[in-house]
Design goal:
This protein is about 65% helix and about 10% strand. By secondary structure, it is mostly helical. It has a 3-stranded antiparallel β-sheet with strand order 4-1-5. Strands 2-3 form a two-stranded antiparallel ribbon.
């Protein structure tokens, strides 16, 4: 039945929401902060022969024009002091983003992108725009992708009232954060359905028990009457 289906979806959404709440129960600023631990490639403009021991791991040594991998926060700091160039990740290439946008438009599934693609791309376009080929086009493509994905999420959640399945695979951390205002009313509605189903089940059990007792009493009365007749 639809109510049974609804309760199943309720628990499915609860599992999704609370798992994501535990992992990504963060503000947008906190999501951006943690995304800065993601690594990318830089081209240093300085020399440092020794390695640096950081909390997130070891980086270096650094040699001019020799690519090396560092956390995003360090790449940003070096870029702001003109000590490096930042190599944009492959997924920010115009060709790759165009392909993602095409697929996002063509079907209802979410294409695979990094979990923190939104804050990473936002910071790179703000701090290292001159290092990103066709940065203006990249920015437009990313905005189009974000808008289409947000529309899919809202549309999917709006259909939860009926017997349909929604897939939220491949959504990013920031996208999870943004759907909270939409998903909370849905969860509240299915919580009400769950309570109603529990109440109906309890009333049904009480009715069955009462009927069983009445049947037992009637059987006992008939047996007593038969014995008295004998």
């Amino acid at each position: 039945t639809q109510s049974t289906w609804g309760i199943g979806i309720f628990w499915c959404l609860c599992s999704f929401f609370f798992v994501m709440e535990e992992v990504l129960g963060l503000s947008p600023e906190e999501i951006e902060f943690f995304s800065e631990n993601e690594t990318l490639t830089i081209i240093p403009k300085f020399r440092l022969e020794r390695q640096l021991e950081l909390i997130c791991g070891t980086v270096g040594p650094f040699h001019p024009n020799i690519p090396t991998t560092v956390p995003l926060w360090l790449a940003i700091a070096l870029k702001q002091h003109d000590r490096c160039e930042i190599r944009a990740p492959d997924w920010m290439d115009v060709k790759n983003l165009s392909a993602v946008l095409k697929e996002e438009k063509a079907n209802g599934t979410f294409q695979s992108l990094p979990m923190n693609y939104i804050p990473i791309s936002s910071q790179l376009l703000k701090i290292a725009k001159d290092d990103i080929p066709n940065s203006a086009t990249v920015k437009v493509l990313l905005e189009d992708i974000e808008n289409i994905r947000q529309a899919k999420i809202r549309d999917g959640l709006a259909r939860v009232q009926g017997p349909e399945t929604i897939k939220l695979n491949n959504i990013s951390a920031m996208e999870v954060n943004r759907i909270r205002p939409f998903i909370q009313p849905v969860l509240a509605r299915f919580y009400e359905l769950s309570k109603e189903q529990d109440t109906q089940a309890s009333e049904s059990q009480a009715t069955d028990l009462s009927s069983g007792r009445e049947s037992d009493r009637l059987s006992q009365a008939m047996r007593r009457r038969d014995r008295m007749g004998q």
